[in-house]
Amino acid sequence: MTQLVDFFFSPYASVQTRRMKAAIEDGLAHGSQITPRDPLPGQAVTLSLFVNGHKPIERVAIYYTTDGTEPQGESGVATQGAVLFAEKLAQGLAGIDATTEIQTWQVTIPAQEDGTMVRYRADGWSVQDPEQHWYADSVDPVTIAQKKGRCFAYHVDHWEAPSWWQDAVVYQIFVDRFNAAQGEPPLHSEETRGITEFFGGTLNGIIEKLDYIQSLGINCLWLSPIFESPSHHGYNPSDYHHVARRYGSDEALIQLIEAAHQRGMRVLLDFIANHTSDEHFAFVEARNNPASPYANWYDITDTNYRSYAQVRSMPELSTEEPEVREYLYGAARYWLEHYGVDGLRLDYVPGPSHAFWTSFQEAVKTARPDALTIGEITSPMPEIVDYAGRMDGFMDFPLSSRMRQTFARRNTTLQELLQFLDQHVSTIPESLCFAAVLDNHDMHRFLWFAEGNLERLKLATAFQMTLEGTPIVYYGTEVGLSQTEDAGKENAYCRGPMLWGEQQNSELLAYYQELIALRHQHSVLRTGKRLNLAIESTGDTEQVGAYIRYTDDTYMLVILNNNEQPVQVRIKLYDVLQQISGTGNYQATRLRSVFSSSRASDLITKDGCLELTVSPLSAEIYLS
Asked: Which superkingdom heads the taxonomic lineage of this protein's source (predicted)?
């Protein structure tokens, strides 16, 4: 097997880890660490603050408001809002290095009413020498730091992900690479255009393919950024209030959304808050005129400016500035209210602060309570869960990595994946939904990573479509689209032009259609609980697995064989049903095959046990 690096998942210090390390080294850190993470009305909230034990910090205080104003205070005296003093816990934490002791301080803000935005700041100081003073999180190695420390926030509410999301199957469309409509210049190929050039996909091209998308079983579209931008990917907007001319017009987006809604489809837009393009009007004015009202929107010096990942065409916004926040919140509301967009996929969530996303969520939910916010959070799970209450959900990249290693590369076993999944799902707060992703616009195409092995893709898809969470299909994966070259950083090759007509793998497409239809037909796959099953088999038992999804009145059995040889499987189904019998009444004697790679017939259990043969790299699914 060729050595390929799944560079999107390469190990690196996460944004929040870098921020916390820098803030603790400076003296005082908070990192938006609150308990509970998503407070409900009537719940008090405990804040944890972290002090560098080598600094003479003897008192720690927080200053908070509940009326939307900016809290102000210093050294225990509040000038705007109320003040509370933190207490040092007896037990410290391990240091960020061998020589640093971290002291944990805590303070509790009283319970608040529904709809309250709590904003707060924190500082610490020396009683012996009041000149020695620290603001919490006043340094930031990732984005533009605030001289007097960060202002933090949380919102007290009952908001949750819209109910339609759990029934969604999402189709991610990279607009420039999908389709051009009749009467428009045809979509380019990699033979006629460089991979980072414009290929000519349009919104009208998507409208023309809605029949195809609907036939796949899709009921939610996620469009790559449609704002004006100088790049093929669009993740550096030049104008947040108009559709890029190359994609058509504002009217074309209205027509697409209306056509999708008539078919019962939802539409998500990609929203970028961390950075703009260097052609954005505010950046142009800020660079040309230091006295411009937009000068504080960016971090610009005489010769340089801060940019995302040091890419000059992506200058970073100062999202702590009130004017910047209002501009971005207003843009989000604009697409929700005037265009009927159903939700926003939030790009590079770790860039802006938790407080930014707290207020962003308030802006979205106030405009459209049934709108979805789902974030791209490239962080470990302990950091992902801190966004509960600040957005509805997240793209589950930790799960993506495991699925790709298990099915595409077979570097880990199926049993390891199932064990991981149990632990993983248990850490996700109830108020935070997640999306299951096999590939997307930033990572190798699954087929490329699997070296073109369609059976591995099919097995991974069977797993994806029978899991908790909402599945996302990256355009073209369902018809065998791979990529032509490897990449080591920005993987533009995974954004190749869509396959149409005879280029499509019709057998793979039918496989996707069948699985997606199965998910739509049986609510147990969307809302049921999941239980991993003990299983006996021939072959490599670590590459064989089974689980059931179950509700009060039905269950679905999923059996997966990740071996490249057929295996004999035996499951003590009666024992399993006894285990879950407290939740419903199940019949174990007969199972109806609803999906089978080998087209197996219905099964009748013998003495409460189920026995069958499972083909290589395949799935068997049975309904009670």
From this structure: Bacteria
